[in-house]
Write a structure and sequence with these properties.
- Helix 1 packs antiparallel against helix 2 and helix 2 runs antiparallel to helix 3.
- The N terminus is likely disordered.
- The chain is globular.
- The protein has ten helices and no strands.
- It folds into two domains: 97 residues, no CATH class; 170 residues, no CATH class.
- With 305 residues, the chain is mainly alpha-helical.
Length: 305
């Protein structure tokens, strides 16, 4: 099993930190891909690396008895390889040769830096609950929570993929038409994730037992809380590429840092007293805050009363 024979140690914390660091490097390179408008590089490296990572880990767990060390190590290597590939592709684009000395290049760097501020903060903070749990709970409890977080991340791929697709479309639309597309996409995702949550209430416990075994059945409650958080975040996720395409990357970064900080503080305060339920609740707090702040800034930006 994934956590069989794993004892609390500093090594697993080092692997968590390395996985976060590798993700930060990957996000840094991909932020420049977006800033330079190289959506193909972003979609190929980000999408393929995520698929490869998920496939290798899934096969390893089911057929080769991978433990948490194997999974984290693979994640670190794939993130780093993805970042290196993105950098190589980006640095060899002919249109960018000689662009470094122009004022436009400095504007792109500024845009990418502002975007990366939010992404990096999100990466550090989104893993904060796991790091907090690693310091206060047994590896068994951490394993149960990791299952719940896996369910959460699997469904989070949906809005991330949609955002990647509509980002390029929004770049070619004026503000009014872009807001119409964002509104329709938000409504679609709201209905989709509400349906997923309702289905999860009745079937998620059975799915967890079927995939991971009866010993992980207690992951149902935190997974359900995380699904609510995913619903709040996903319902407003198309607003994020809207902020970016309207040259307002700092809005996205500020929202991420504020909501993420609240979630991290919540994990520190709630996890010691309520364990994995408290950690999941901290993610829900961050998700609800993200939703409210996105709507507030989106309405302000589009002047919708």
């Amino acid at each position: 099993m994934l956590f069989d024979g794993i004892q609390p140690s500093s090594f697993i914390k080092v692997l968590f930190v390395l996985s976060i660091f590798s993700a930060l490097i990957n996000y840094l390179v991909n932020s420049f891909c977006l800033a330079f408008g190289e959506m193909r590089i972003y979609l190929i490296t980000f999408g393929i690396s995520s698929l490869i990572n998920l496939s290798i880990i899934s096969v390893g767990i089911f057929y080769y008895n991978f433990d948490i060390y194997n999974c984290l190590t693979i994640t670190v290597f794939i993130e780093l390889i993805s970042a290196i590939c993105s950098f190589i592709f980006l640095s060899n684009i002919k249109e960018l040769k000689g662009y470094e000395a122009t004022k436009g290049f400095r504007d792109v760097i500024n845009y990418a830096s502002q975007s990366y501020l939010g992404v990096s903060g999100s990466t550090l903070i989104s893993n904060g609950d796991t790091i907090v749990l690693a310091n206060i709970l047994t590896q068994e409890s951490l394993g149960i929570y990791s299952i719940a977080k896996t369910v959460y991340r699997l469904f989070s791929i949906i809005p991330q993929t949609i955002n990647s697709v509509i980002f390029g479309i929004l770049c070619d639309l004026n503000a009014k038409n872009a807001s119409v597309l964002v509104n329709k996409t938000c409504l679609t995702l709201t209905l989709l994730f509400t349906s997923i949550f309702i289905a999860g209430v009745f079937s998620l416990d059975k799915l967890i037992v079927f995939v991971w075994g009866i010993e992980f059945s207690t992951a149902y409650e935190p997974a359900l809380i995380l699904l609510i958080a995913a619903t709040f975040i996903s319902a407003t996720s198309p607003m994020n590429p809207y902020f970016l395409t309207q040259n307002k990357p700092m809005i996205s970064s500020q929202i991420t840092l504020i909501s993420g900080t609240l979630g991290l503080v919540g994990a520190i305060m709630l996890a010691p007293h309520f364990g994995i339920i408290g950690a999941a609740t901290s993610v829900l707090i961050a998700g609800m805050t993200t939703c409210v702040l996105r709507i507030f800034n989106y309405r302000k930006l589009t002047k919708v009363v």
